[in-house]
Design brief:
- It contains three helices and three strands.
- The chain is mainly alpha-helical.
- The chain has three domains: 37 residues; 51 residues, no CATH class; 57 residues.
- A hairpin with a 2-residue loop joins strand 1 and strand 2.
- It is rod-shaped.
């Protein structure tokens, strides 16, 4: 009589395991299918001083894979609160916001530098004149300095011409 009890206990233990395992499998399947049905989102993230684009379903909560659309780059000391941890529907939308953000910064910094470069341009022009005079007077080794000064003044003049509005006819 002991023998029929043993298979009954084994069947009962197997039944309990199945009752425990099946709901766990169902819950995992539901979680996985929910993530598969959620639309993929894109987020700009800063980690260790580098900005990168991540793609995922809940990227603001969990660690998601980095997108290959953008190589990470250093943004140490830069305030990116308006564009980081914001959900974007597409990669292009995220890149457009990032592009616009940096274009505005580049424009502002270029304008600020142009004011300072104007002061330098006058000083460099005077230095070029004096260096050319010293070379003409026989001072050796000034050729490289003259080339560098001419190059800087040329770059400055191109910048100034490109920022001036075209004359109307």
């Amino acid at each position: 009589m002991d023998q029929p009890v043993l298979p009954y206990l084994q069947q009962r233990l197997i039944g309990r395991k199945v009752i425990i395992i099946l709901p766990v499998i169902a819950i995992l399947a539901a979680i996985i299918s929910t993530f598969m049905l959620l639309p993929k989102s894109y987020y700009l993230k800063v980690r260790d001083g580098e900005l990168f684009l991540v793609e995922g379903y809940l990227s603001s909560w969990v660690s998601s894979p980095r997108s290959s659309a953008m190589s990470p780059f250093s943004v140490k000391g830069l305030d990116l609160k308006g564009i980081t941890n914001v959900e974007f529907e597409t990669q292009d939308e995220a890149m457009d916001v990032l592009r616009s953000f940096f274009q505005k910064r580049v424009q502002a910094q270029s304008e600020a530098l142009l004011v300072k470069e104007k002061e330098l341009a006058n000083a460099y022009s005077d230095l070029l004149r004096d260096t050319a005079g010293a070379k003409a007077a026989g001072t050796p080794g000034l050729e490289k300095n003259i080339e560098v000064l001419k190059g800087w003044i040329e770059v400055y003049n191109v910048k100034v011409k490109s920022t001036m509005p075209a004359a109307k006819s």
